[in-house]
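Structure tokens please, single chain.
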Amino acid sequence: VWRGLYPAAAGMITQQRRHDAVSNNIANLNTPGYKEQQAVIRSFPEMLIHLVGESSGTPGRPANRQIGVVNSGVMVEEIVPNFTQGTLQETGNPYDVALVSNIPVDEATGYEPQAFFTVWNEANEPRYTRNGSFYVDAEGGLRTSDGYRVIGADGQPIVLNVPLEQVRIAANGALFDANTGEQLAGNPALLISRIDNPYNLVREGYGVFRLADPAANPPAAADPAQFSVQQGFVEQSNVDPARAIVDLMTALRIYEANQRVIQYYDSSLDKAVNEVGRV
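Here you go.
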């Protein structure tokens, strides 16, 4: 029984987690800079089956002949983000800033480093995001739409002395006065961080990530030649709606198939206990 009951139950749990990941992707279709989640599924180790009880030719010693292998189910090993570039949508709003990352793949590691806006949370801890929907608070501080303080190239929060609609943001992240064409006082610029191993990032919500192990994967200022900041644009979510719907329906169908297997085994056990036992 365990050869069918347990793998079916594991399959249901796996498809439930996959369904949750896809549902979260669909819920964030319109979230700027959102990176979709992908469920990595792998099977449990296969188990070798032996024949026990048949004579082996040696008196008093049962056979231990190999029959074959059986798989005991699957599991979701991890949920990983997909960092492919989202489509840029022009808004004409000076408060919207999109980041285009074109850092080549590291041939030594196989990872594709990514560029992120650098922000601080309430505890002044660095976080990383691709959501460039900004606003200016009452003190002139530049913040994301969710309240994170935007950090400049000097490692400190950016504070503006002019309204944001008067600020022009260059492709390299430098901030200029749109009226005079001169860089703002203090030469502020957005800190664009390069993360060499983006899979070391942990999602915290609101499109914000933190590094799981900053010592092993320290961030660095990205080379201006490897990114471009586009003011008046937002980077859309990289979720493909059509594929997400297909994945959602696939997870549901596989879940239902495993559910029917469990119902079949439940019926068989019921007969074994309540009917065969009476005979």
